[in-house]
Structures are given as structure tokens and as C-alpha cells.
């Protein structure tokens, strides 16, 4: 398959291809878009260097408790359990992920437009933004399987047609993230390198990849080289903690061998100037709950009521 002229990040190729330096800035904002926001210049520089930031007390415990009550309700709700956006653990009944969570729940929808979150998004993306994808990864105790090493951007470029690296994930811990229940692992600095992956993408790949990802996993040599250079970080923290990570930062997580669930909420913000094209792998677009193409208007901050204190 010939590479498209607008494909700056060819991947899912027939043979191993060398990694190369990303072509996009990490922090896209300049001027007052960069300086007038909650992230300090030190934090912006750290995000530029590492590809992620960690804040341990972003949501207050009472707010997190309300979100967690919603999760319990979803686990009992047959219509949600049957929906296409709900993924169960391989060979199990336990929920692995629920996609499109901000369209299921007003509480989650409100949080996507929290003024502080949107102000940080503007500093990082340098523009207005919309939700490309939202999900909760439940990672239940004992049965929550891991997620193999990958760059989200590599998948969103190949399978959703995301043209450039101008998207960011906000991951909020809804349960404590400990060293024992499969916390998110990230390779600092890996966001600066694009690692093309081998393998043609089958149609409807998402129907298996969301349970266990086979394609878009960098080879061990490339992974080892990046880890040798920068190590691995596994931020832990109480429920309510926030990890902001750049769309191309390599991340993974281990299976949960503890009794304690590791349930994290993910909001993915994409710049309104980076709207999805046709998927670069050549397949038909994935469903909207994975790569949103229909509701791409710029998100406006909530009114003065602070979404993080939703009643
Ligand atoms: O395919 C996707 O969009 C999903 N897959 C992974 C492993 N991370 C990003 C996203 O949730
Ligand atoms: Fe991911």
C-alpha cells in the first residue's frame, strides 16, 4: 500500500522501519496561550522533557466517591454491559473498559469542561479542543489484565486518521493507584520518538485490540533502547490523582494481581486543528466512541460552578 503524501508518521508497515524524531512540537502554545494558564513554566518544561505530568490531589475525595458510585451502578446496568462501547476482560465477564463515558453521564461530561482542565489543555495544545475519546479502564482486582506497550498516537494515526501529534490524555485515578494493582507505566522522553510498527491492520481490528493489543506494539529492540535511555516511571497516588500524558508517550500497565481495583478515567483532548482524516492504515473509520468525528466543536468551560465539585 503506497504511503499517502499527508502521512507524516507511516506505521503498520510490512517490514521493520527505523524510529525517527517526532515532527511536531510537544507544547504547541506560544505567547499568552502558554503563559496564561494553571501550568507553570517549570511544569511545561517538565512535560516537554518527560511527556507527562503527575498531580496527586486533583479531585477531592468526596467528588471521587461520587464518580466511583457511578462506576458501581454501571457494573449493574445491563444496557451498559451490552453496549458496543463496553469491553470485558478476555474470557471473563468483568468489565475491562467503558468507552464514551462522557456521553453516558452528565457528571463525566461536566468534568470534560472543567475550567482548569480546559485551561491546561489550551496551554498544551495551543488551541481549542474537543474530546477525541473518553473511557474508564476498570482493571478489577485479581482479573484486570494489563495493556501492552504502545503509543496511543500510533493507533489513533493508523486507525482513526489523526494527522499530527496534537492531542493529550488526562487520566484521573478513581481508585488508589498502588505499586500492586497495575498502575500506568510510562517511558519518560519516549514521546519525542515515533516508533513505526509492523503489521497490516485487519478490518474491525478494535474488536480484538481493546481486549488484547497485538498491532501497534513496538518491537522489543526499540522498547529496550528507549527504556535504557530513560527508564520507566509508574506514578502511584490516591484516588483523585491526575496524570497528563502526551499522545505519543509510550505507556503500558501490568495485570492487577491485588484485590484492589485500579479504575482510571481517561479523557483524550484533540486540537480542533487536528481533526481526523481517513485512517492512514487504509481501513474504514472506527466507531465514534473510539475516534469521535461528529461532535468536534470546541469545548467551552463550564459556568462558574466548578465541575470538580459536581453535586
Ligand atoms: O485503540 C484505542 O484507541 C485504545 N487503545 C489503547 C491501548 N490505548 C488508547 C485507547 O484507549
Ligand atoms: Fe493507551
From TrEMBL:
Cofactor or coenzyme needed: Fe(2+)
Enzyme Commission code(s) on record: 1.14.11.55
SUPFAM superfamilies assigned: Clavaminate synthase-like (SSF51197)
Enzyme class, spelled out: oxidoreductase
Renumbered residue ranges of the record's region Disordered: 1-39, 287-311
Positions with biased composition (Basic and acidic residues): 1-36
Molecular function, one GO term: iron ion binding
Function: Involved in the biosynthesis of 5-hydroxyectoine, called compatible solute, which helps organisms to survive extreme osmotic stress by acting as a highly soluble organic osmolyte. Catalyzes the 2-oxoglutarate-dependent selective hydroxylation of L-ectoine to yield (4S,5S)-5-hydroxyectoine.
NCBIfam families: ectoine_ThpD (TIGR02408)
Name by which UniProt lists this protein: Ectoine hydroxylase
Organism: Marinobacter gudaonensis
